[in-house]
Amino acid sequence: MPRAPRIEYSGAIYHVINRGNYRSWIFEDDGAKFAFEKCLFEACERSGWILHAYCIMGNHYHLAIETPQPNLSEGMRWLQSVYANRYNRYRKERGHLFQGRFKSILVGDGDRLAWLCHYIHLNPVRAGITQVPDLKSYPFSSYPKLFKSKARESFMSYESSLEGAGGLKDTPAGRRKYTQYLEWLNQDEQAQKDAAFEKMSKGWALATKDFKKAIIADQRNRLAAIETGDKDFAEIREENWASELGRCLKALGKNKEDAKKDRKSADWKVAIATHLKTKHLCKNPWLSKHLKMGAPAGVSRYCSELKSGKRKQAAKLLKILS
Q1: For the chain, percent helix, then strand, then coil, each to nearest 5?
Q2: Domain map of the chain by residue range?
Q3: Which neighbouring-strand residues pair with 16?
Q4: Which pLDDT tens digit goes with each residue over 37-47?
């Protein structure tokens, strides 16, 4: 039976969950948790996601993600595969790391997004790892970063968490009140029931009946208009890549003929490849083919050199494209 297509659209919000294969403790040590957090942040930057909340536990993770572009599947594919490759390479292991497909639950409105953020932030408390007053000491979560406003990543947003705790502001006083709110919520079973805590990881949507009906109707119309599948998705994606490549070539005063005659590691090629990989999740084989950069593995090497500071001219050109 073919897999059901993901429901993706611009501006969608999701509760994303996955576990280690056979419920194994893939995040058992701090190093593994920090490594996944690093991959998560990279995925947010690459995909343009807004990260409302996250928590990494010993054998699973929770994410509250907003997708300005309909790219959840592609971004999550990158996140999980890159982390698995790094994990297996470091530990000299092989095989699947995660328990199949990640689960994504649509979030229908701002109130439910706030409930989800509270639910995620309280995850270590429910697991018995810590208590609310000491929750800031659990570093593998978005909660402690609330209190470090200057060190936050640009894609992180606490607006929903604070607004959903009584219209709090992102100020020292507002953050202290948020801790008090979580402490009250953790102790009040009826409040947790009202916030649908028991439904957070169930079903396909955390939403009203009207929202669910509208989504189902939209999906039926979309599937009636086009038979979706991997081939269709790949064609649409590559059309977008080609369009962005054309823009980049024009911005740098280059064309397809220049790609043929210039060396495969030319700085302008590396700048475009890095931009397309970072901002549009472009694949190495496609880049090597259209920019004439040789073996696909070479594309990653050249882009890594730029990011490590070895290709200063390419880095200057990259700024033009951003």
Answers
A1: 60, 10, 30
A2: 12-222, 230-321
A3: 63, 104
A4: 999 999 999 99
